[in-house]
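ugh ok so i messed up the first submission bc i forgot one of the chains. this is the corrected input, ALL of the components this time, i swear. 981 residues overall. if the numbers dont match what u have on ur side tell me asap before i send this to the collaborators (the ones from the other lab, u know who)
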Amino acid sequence: MDTKLKHQPPVWPDRFLEFYCNPSRLEQIQGDAYEIFYTNLEERGLSLARFRFFIHVVSFFRWSNIKRTNSSHLTYTQGAMFKNYFKIGWRNLIKQKGTTFISVFGLACAVGCCMVAYLFIAQIWFKGMYQPYKDEIFQLTYTAEENDGLVTYGTIAEPISELIPENLNQVKNQTRVKVDFSLLIHANESFNQRTMYIDPGFMEMFEYRMEYGYPGALHEPNEVILTHQLSEKLFGNTHPIGQEISIVTNGTERLYKVGGVLKDLNDMDLFNFDLLVNINSLNTFSAEKPLKEAWKEGIWTFIQVEDSESISQMNAGFENLRNIQNAIDPETPYKSIQLEPYTQLTRNSEQIERGVISFLALGPQILLAAIASFILLLAVFNYVNISVLMASRRLKEIGIRKVIGSKRSQLVIQFLSENLMVCSFAIFLGCLLTGFIFLPGFNEIASKNMRIDLLRDGYIWLFLGGLLLFITFASGLYPAIYVSSFKPVSILNGNQKIGSKGVFTSVLLTFQFTLAIISIVAGIAFVQTNYINAKRDWGYDNTDKIIVNVPNSAQYSGLKEELSSLASVTEVCGSQEYVGNFLRNIEINFEDNDYEISLLNAESNYPELLGLQLKQGRLFTLQSASDKKESILVNQAFLNELSLTFPLDQKITIDSIPYNVVGVVEDFHTVFFQSLIDPLVIRASQDTTFNYLTLKTTQGAAVDLMPTVKKIWYETIPRGLFEGKLQADVFRNEFEDVLGVQNILLFSAILSVLLSTMGLFGLVSLSMNSRIKDFCVRKVFGADLIDISYKLMKRYLIIWLVAAILGSIASVMLISAFLNSFFAFNSGVGIVPLGSALVILFAVITGTVASQIYKVMKVNPAIILKSE
Amino acid sequence: MKGYHLGELEELVLLTVGILNQEAYGVSVLEEIKNQTGRKVNISAIHTVLNRLEDKGLLQSQMGGATEERGGRRKRLFSISASGRTAIQEVKDLRNRLYDQIPPLALDFSYGH
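and heres the new structure output, hopefully the right one now
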C-alpha cells in the first residue's frame, strides 16, 4: 500500500474535476476515479494509469455532473419574473389607452422618419454593397500631374483593358464600363436612356437578379438587358424577351433584341443605368481609330481578383502598363496606375475625378437626418414626460415592491423591460408606417425607388436594433431611475409628490416647443420663398415662346424654314444655348485680366425676341454686319463684377477677338433661383447653325402650337429625340424639386406640431387627473373660470414664452442658413414665418389646456369629492 | 400496469447491484460487470446509470466505507429498493413470457431441411 501511494493521480485533471464537478457528486466520483487509478497503477504501470485517469475525468464531464451556479429552479423563477413584468406592463398600458396611444404613435412616427432618412442615406453610402464579390472587385485608376497637384482619375485609357490579360495574370474577370445617354427607339417612339456599355465579364463579376431571361444574354453582341423600370415603360404588360429596340450611338442606328430584364434595383446598385449593352457592339461601328486617339479615350475599367494576396504582386504589371501609355501618349502621361477597391468607391468619390459616383448629395442627407432626429427627439421627450407621470399612478406598487425587498436595480429593470415592450411595438408600427405611407410618399417626392428589404439587407436589422436600444434607453432610463428613487416610507405615507411640477418636465417641454417652432418656421419660410419665387420676374418675357432642339446641324436650316412658315409663328431665332439652361463659361480678357464669364451665342435678334430689358446703349442692329463681328451685350452683373460703367472705352477680348460693348441689359435669370445671376455676355454670331431654335408665337398660341411643332420636327428629323418645351417651362423641374422639399418640410412641421400637441395633451390630462380634487375644492369654494384657467395656463404660457424666445433665435440662425444654402433668392426668416409659428403654437397650447379646463368646468364637484 | 422501462445497461447495473448486495458502488459494479459478462463499460457511464436509477427510485444509497486508495473519500453504496426488486421481477417475467411465445419450430435447426 505504501509503495502505491508514492504516486498521485495527475494534478491538473484532478483540479479540473474539482473545478467542474457538482459538489454533491464530487466525493463519489473522485473516490472512484482514484480507486481506478491505483488499480491501474498496480496492474498496468504509471503512465497508463495517469492517462486513464485523465480519460475518466473527461468522460465524467457530463451535464448531470457539472456544477451550475444557477440551478434550473432559479432560471425558472427569472423567466416568471420577466413574464410578470411584461404582464404588469401590459396591463398598465391597456389601462391607459390614450396615453399609450400617444407614446406609441409618436414613437412610431419618429421611427418612420428615421427609417426614411436611414434608407435615403444608406442608398447613397451602401450602394452596391450586396454584391457577393464586392471584396474582389477593383477599379483601375490612374494618377497624373495636373496644374493643381496630383489628381486621380477613374477613367483609364480604353486599350489598357486589352493589355490586362498579358500584364496582370492574377485577374480573373475584367470589364469596361461606359455610360452614355443614347437614343433608344422603340415602336416609332424615341427615348433618351442611360445606356451602360459593358464587357460580358461584367455579368460574372456583378450579380443581378433577373426578372426574365438570363445574365449570359450579353454574350450575344446584339442582345441587351433592360432594367425593370425601362421594360415597364417600353413594353408594359407584354413579355419583353425577344422584342426589338434600336439604339442610336454616334449617329449610327443599330438593332438589338431584349435578352433579359433585371429585377427592380431599388436604387441600391452602384451603377446608374437603364439598359446594359455589350460594349463590343459599339466597337464594330466606331471602326479603326488611330492608335493615339484610342488611348485618349478614357473608360471605367473594373477587374476581379480572387486572391487578395496577389494584389501586391500586380505592381510590376501596372508599371508596365504605365510605360506603354507614356510611350504612346507622352503629352498626358500617367504617373501611376493603381487599384481602387469597389467597396471604397463611394467613400473615396471625392478624391477620384470622373469616377463612378460623381456627387453624394450631402445637403439632402443632412436635411433628412436633421428632420428625423428632430422628430425622434420630440417623440422621446413626449414619452419621457408621459411615463414619469404615468408612474405616479403606480407609486404604491413601487413602494410595496421596495418594502418586500426589490432592489432599485430590479425596479429599473422592470421599468426598462416594460419600456422595451412599448418601443418594440413602436418599431413594428413604425416599420409598417414607413412601408405603406412614408416611403411611398417620399419616393414620389424624391422620384426615388427605395424599398425596405428585410431579407437581403443586413444593415437595416442593425439599424433597427440600434434604434430600438436607443429609444428604449433614451426614453426609459430617466423615468426608471427617477421613479425607483423614492423612499417607500414617504410613498406609503402618501407624501410623495411626483412629476408635473418637475423642472425636468418643464425643460423637456420647452425644448419640444422650441423644436416645433423651428420646424414650423422652416416649413412656412420655405413656402413663402416658393411663393415669392413663383411670382418673381424672370427679367425677360417668357410667354409665347417655344424652344426646340436641333440635334443635327444638317437639318438646321430645313427645320428653321419649316417652322418659320407656320402661321402663328412670328419669329424664329437660333441660339447655341437657351436661357434657362446652363450656359457655357468662357475666358474673356479685359485690361490684361482674365475672367470666367457665361456666354450666350445667338442670332442677333435673340435679345429682342426674348424681350430682354435694355438698360443702356442699344441692342444688336439686325442688318448690321459689324454687330455680328465685333459687338456684344452684357448684363448688369457683368458691369458690377468688373466694376465698370457704361459706356466702355476699352474693348473686351474673347478668343483673341476684340469686341465693343454696345449695350447693357437688366439682369435676368438664366438659371434657377438657387443660384445668383452670373455675369453674362451675349454675342451675336454669324448665321451658322445653332443647337436650339426659339420660336416666338402670336399671343397665347404657344401651347396649342406644340403638337404641330413636334410633328414637323419628327418629319424633318426622323432619328432624334424632340426636346421642345415652352420658355415658361424651363424651370419646371426645379420648381418640382423645391415643391418636393417644401412638402417634406411641411410634413415634418405638421408632424412635430402634432407630436408636441399630443405630448402636451397627455401631460395636461394626466396632471389634471391627479389634481382634479384640488380644482373641485376650489370650485366648491367659488373659483370661477378665470381663476382656474389662470391656475392651469400659467405654467404653459411661461414655457411657451421661453420656447418662443429660444425658437425665434434658433430659427433665425438655422433656417436663414438653410434657406441661403438652398436659394440665392429667398424670403429670409421674416415676421411672417416667425409670427405664424408662434401663433400656431400658442393656439395649440391654449386649445389643449382649454379642453382640460372645459373638463373641470363640466364636472360635478360632488361626484369627484364623494368618491374614495 | 405501469411498467418499468429499463435500458439494457440499466438492467445490467440493477442486477449487478443486487448481486453485490450492500457492497455495490461505482468501481465494484464496474468490476463485477467485467467479471460476469466480460463487458468493459466506462466508469462514467456506470455513474450516470446508478444516479439515474436512484432518481427513478429503483436504487437507494448511503455514504460509507472510506479507504486509503480513495484518498480517504467515502463510497456511495447502492442497494436495491423494493420497487427495484419489482422492476427486476417484471423484466424477467416479461422476458420469459416473450421467450415462451417463440414458436418451437424456430428453434428447431432441422426446420427446412
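quick check: Chain A has four domains: 4-65, 137-353, 362-532+735-866, 545-731. that seems consistent at least. The longest strand of chain A covers residues 171-186.
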